[in-house]
Structure formats: structure tokens, C-alpha cells
Amino acid sequence: MLIGFLLIFFGLSFLLDQFSIGFSPVRFWPVIILAVGLYMLARKSTAMGIIMLGFGAVFLVSSLFSINAFGLLWPLVLIGVGGMILFKPKFPGRVNESNITSEDVIDGTAFFGAVSKKVVSKNFKGGKIVYMFGGFTLDLRNAQVEDGAEIVLDGLFGGGEVFIPHDVAVISDGTVIFGGWENKAVVPDKPVATIKITGAIVFGGVEIKN
Asked: Rounded to an integer, what distance in angstroms lies between the CA atom of residue 51 and that of residue 155?
């Protein structure tokens, strides 16, 4: 649906330009980025939704008022990174975070680095991992997954792997823009539980396997 909408939108835009009607819809192309951001928010990918809305807003202002988009964007990126460092003391930065955890709900963040979690929980319920310009490894092979658990993966420029127990079924439902999302996990004959893995990846990839 998104690809079809893009083709129709730009086709009509260039067609209208040929008639010189005095209005160029092409200038409103960042609205597509805003729509993608709203779509991600609706799918509970909060971090990536906000990022895409930010990019869309910057490019829309740049397009409408002939302002250099990158001149607006890089200061905002610096401000955002600084704020994340200040308000998240345990922010991993360039230092890799690798640990064994028994938490039932995980919460991982990586920026210009990697987060690695080996979960040994007896009642794993899910969680989320957010990364930018980095990656992650999530190992659930030694965890007991609660039926209906859900993991949200949101990332920009990077990727990671999720390892699933052989007796757990996977519902893979990710949104990918310029990247890949692949589920290689074996489907068990009699699964003891089902886990849903969702999220949004931009310029990156996710691989799910056993």
C-alpha cells in the first residue's frame, strides 16, 4: 500500500507540474515521512515513530521555506544525543553492554555501540530494544517464555539478532524501510509458547533464529 501510494503521489505531482498550474505537490513529499512516523507510532514503535516525525518535520520546513535541511538537522541531532546522555546515566555510548539477566521484562538501549542480553528468566514476558547507529544481540534460548510475550525492536542504521528456544513459536511482524527482517526460526511441532516480535527498522536488519 505504501509503495502504491508513493507511485501515485509522485506520478500525479510530476503530471501537474507539466501543466504549470502554479502549485507543486512535490514540495510536500516529506508528508510521506510524517505518515510513516504516525504509522510506526500506531504500531507501538514509539522511538522510531518520533524520529521519523522529526525527520519529516525538518524536511517539510526545508522544502516549503527553501531552508537547508541538513543545516537544521545536524544541530538537532547533536542536541538529541546530548540530552540522551544527560538524562540516561547508564547510556552505553561506545561501550558494549553484555550481561546475563533474569528480568522478566527487558529494556535495552544502544547508541554508537551494542547491547547484548542473555535472558535466563523463568517467566519472560517481553520488552523492548532501541538502538541508533549500533546493534543488539538478544539470546532467549535459556529463558522460559510466557505465552503471548512481545518484543519491540526499534532501530536506525544498524541491526541485530534474536535467538529463540526451539520449542517456542514466533510471530514475526516488523516494519522495515531500506533494510531486512528475516525469520529463520524453526517452527516447532508442539510449541510450549508463542512470542511476537515486532518493531520498526530503518536502514538496518533483524534476523530471528534458533
From this structure: 10
Choose among 178, 175, 180: nearest CA to 208: 180
Q: Which stretch of DSSP H or E encloses residue 84? A: helix 69-87
- Does 94 score more than 60 pLDDT? no
Q: What is the number of other CB atoms lying within 10 angstroms of the CB of residue 126?
A: 18
Residue 135 and residue 96: Cα distance in Å, rounded? 10
The model's pTM: 0.63
26-52 confidence digits (pLDDT tens): 677 777 778 777 777 776 667 677 777
Element (H, E) at 182: strand 180-183
Other residues' Cβ atoms within 10 Å of the Cβ of residue 199: 25
Domain map (residue ranges) of the chain: 2-87, 97-209
Q: What b-and-e string marks burial along 75-95, b requiring 16 or more CB atoms within 10 Å of the CB?
A: eeeeeebeeeeeeeeebbbee
CA distance 5 to 1: 6
Confidence check: pLDDT of 9 > 80:
no
pLDDT for residue 186 is more than 60? yes
Residue 149's DSSP bridge partners are: 195
Q: Give the span between the Cα atoms of 26 and 14, in whole angstroms.
A: 7
